Every structure is written in structure tokens, then in C-alpha cells.
Amino acid sequence: MIRKLKTGSYRLYSRKKNPKTGKRRNLGTFRTRAAAQKHERAVQYFKRA
Fold first, then answer.
1. Which of 8, 12, 20, 17 is nearest to 40 (CA)?
2. What is the DSSP letter of 22?
3. I want to staple 10 with a disulfide (CB 3.0 to 4.6 A). Which of 6, 36, 39, 45 is the partner?
4. Rounded CA gap, 1 and 34, in Å?
């Protein structure tokens, strides 16, 4: 899940909420949405590897 921050950058969050905290895990902050999408694909790939 990618969200735009007030600063104008984009942050990648996990899809599921952490049951202990009730929040989503921060998986990285990126300057462009394209960079965040690229990293999201890499994360999904390594989840299966």
C-alpha cells in the first residue's frame, strides 16, 4: 500500500495491519511513486522466494 505524505514523498506500507500495534509496517519512503511501486514489486517477489 503506497500513501503520499505531507512532505510530497511516498511511503510503502505493508498490506496487513500488525495485530500487536494495529498499524501497518513501514516498508520504506521514496521520493517518487514509481520508485515506491518498483520497491513494492521487489518486496512481493522476495515474499515468494
1. 12
2. S
3. 36
4. 13
